[in-house]
């Protein structure tokens, strides 16, 4: 399972579906507008989708950039460093769910 799939399931709470499209069921009950195609869900690469994840974080996280690397942190937790802000958000969100 790649990081985008893990974020969809573990952070966003979405369900994988195969019909009418291969994608993610983003809420229940749903309409076609509530389906996200698998190939369109790339929060580890797309900052607009990464911000959706950032908004799901329950605690007050901050995003820092140092020397071309990115990390999220909050009062008692440091997230992993990443090469991009979207990846840092994804990694921190998964770490936050481990608590």
Brief summary:
The protein is of the alpha+beta class and 99 residues long. The chain has helices spanning 3-11, 47-54, 85-98; strands at 15-17, 23-25, 35-37, 62-66, 69-74, 77-78. The strands form two sheets. Strands 1-2-3 form a three-stranded antiparallel β-sheet, with no helix packed on it. A three-stranded antiparallel β-sheet has the order 4-5-6, covered by helices on one side.
**How far is the N terminus from the C terminus?**
20 Å
How large a portion of the residues is in β-strands, by DSSP E?
15-25%
CATH class: Alpha Beta
How large is the count of helical segments?
3
Oligomer: single chain
Q: Would you list the SSEs in sequence order as H and E?
A: HEEEHEEEH
Low-confidence stretches: none
What is the molecular shape? Answer: elongated
* Overall number of strands: 6
The overall number of domains is 1
Provide the spatial order of strands within the biggest beta sheet: 1-2-3
The chain-level mean pLDDT equals: 86
| CATH architecture assignment | 2-Layer Sandwich
